[in-house]
Design goal:
Elements (H helix, E strand, L loop, with lengths): L1 H6 L15 H4 L2 E7 L5 E6 L4 E5 L14 E6 L8 E6 L4 E6 L4 E5 L14 E6 L9 E6 L3 E6 L4 E5 L14 E6 L9 E6 L3 E6 L4 E5 L14 E6 L8 E6 L3 E6 L4 E5 L14 E6 L7 E6 L5 E6 L4 E7 L2 E8 L5 H8 L9 E2 L8 H8 L8 E5 L2 E5 L1 H7 L1 H9 L4 E4 L4 H13 L6 H13 L3 H13 L6 H10 L3 H13 L1 H5 L2 H4 L3 H13 L6
Parallel strand pairs: 26-28
Antiparallel strand pairs: 1-2, 1-25, 2-3, 3-4, 5-6, 6-7, 7-8, 9-10, 10-11, 11-12, 13-14, 14-15, 15-16, 17-18, 18-19, 19-20, 21-22, 22-23, 23-24, 26-27
InterPro entries: BACK, BTB/POZ_dom, RCC1-like_dom, RCC1/BLIP-II, Reg_chr_condens, Signaling_Regulatory_Domain, SKP1/BTB/POZ_sf
Protein name: RCC1 and BTB domain-containing protein 2-like
Keywords: Repeat
Length: 535
Amino acid sequence: AFSLCLSSMLDVGKWPVFALLPPEELRLIRQACVFGSAANEALYVTVNDEVFALGTNCSGCLGLGDLQSTIEPRRIDVLCGKKIVSLSYGTGPHVVIATADGEVFAWGHNGYSQLGNGTTNHGLTPALVSTNLLSKRVTEVACGSHHTIALTTDGEVYAWGYNNSGQVGSGSTANQPTPRRVSSCLQNKVVVNIACGQLCSMAVLDNGEIYGWGYNCNGQLGLGNNGNQQTPCRIAALQGVNIIQVACGYAHTLALTDEGLIYAWGANSYGQLGTGNKSNQALPTQINTDKERMVEVAACHTSHTSAAKTQSGQVLMWGQCRGQAVASPHLTHFSTTDDVFACFATPAVTWHLLSVDSDDYLTVAQSLKKEFDSPEISDLKFLVDGKCIHVHKALLKIRCEHFRALLNETDEDAIEIHQFSYLVYRAFLEYLYTDTINLPPEDAIGLLDLATFYRETRLKRLCQETIKRGISEENAITLLSAAVKYEARDLEEFCFKFCINHLTAVTQTQAFADMDHDLLKNFISKASRYGAFKN
């Protein structure tokens, strides 16, 4: 189970809404979504397929059955075990998911029938969207501000909800209370990818053609004009170009070709088209990406931010970036397009469902951590206080000068240690595998002794930090004595000042009564120099 947890760990650290979750909970997250007008709502799925929600819960968008906000994650029982494959949300917000079984569930804001249940009552708990979809398997969902579209395994698109600009594709501007198949010129065509801007919809076909419908006042349909469209229209300007993925921002569109090129069109007042200027484009314009092949484009209908990933794994961003207008693709140090939205979009929401790659890939650090004290491929064991600690000679030589010298002189496969306790020695070896220490302050003293003995300066510093964090009136003298003994000057100074500031309480402790004579004399003279006795 341990390796599973490690490989399944989704890094949600850049999304502030997750900041209060304890590390043991964060380790279990396998999928996550951050949404809402202030990025204050979140849903996540754990390795056990349990679904949790937290945040402000506007319009009941957390699906918890009430309108209560929650700073602690609460479980959405009806979704547990469902295996979510696609998730999208509107600005109400309403939330829509597709499950591995091809079912669609929706909840939250429903003022425009965007939940597809034929009513306009908000949905406080996830409900199956059934009209016209019961015999279909949905693989992908996309939401605009208040409308929803769904893609089936047959390549059909269904749409429902707000339709003021024709974004439902029904040929009218009447809101659509239940799912309706988007046909007209998509009849007999196979759609493979969908996306929604605030008030428009886009579909990519299996033959590389791309269609758009709905609001077009900024040219976001790429048709060369600014007229709204109530039924799907092919973007003729991309004739002969094979589109494989589309992403929509608030009022702009990005498309990726099978050759790794990016085309952009629509609104551009924040430079979100990446053309180097801020003029809207009603026709697709190829973006200059320095001949780098692109493998992903990213945008979200809540923002004017754009991002893309190159074949070599570099991430570019442009558009509105924390209030700045960046008009050309800018190279970042991020490893995923998700990080662009976490750090630079306003609001900082996820542009799609965050998911961990399910291949059990471990980083070097994770692999080493996992092998610590595991007998499986260990070639050396330390015997301390009658207990075994399993390690790997090569790693110890790489990580510690002392072991490099020691292990070059001996080919023992078991070494007995008498000088240090099991707890301390195990913590030291674990540090060599993980770069961190995990000990209460009193035990960190023993580790400080060891770090001094083995001349491990960084470990010594870590121990000092741990001890400082755990100082109290009861243990201050003990810690001070240890600092003196192991010549940890910085720590000695810290403990001494603490003792002076809490002099009355500290001098009444047992540790003070038992204090070594020389240390006591030294303490009193130093305290007087500090003016501790000037009454």
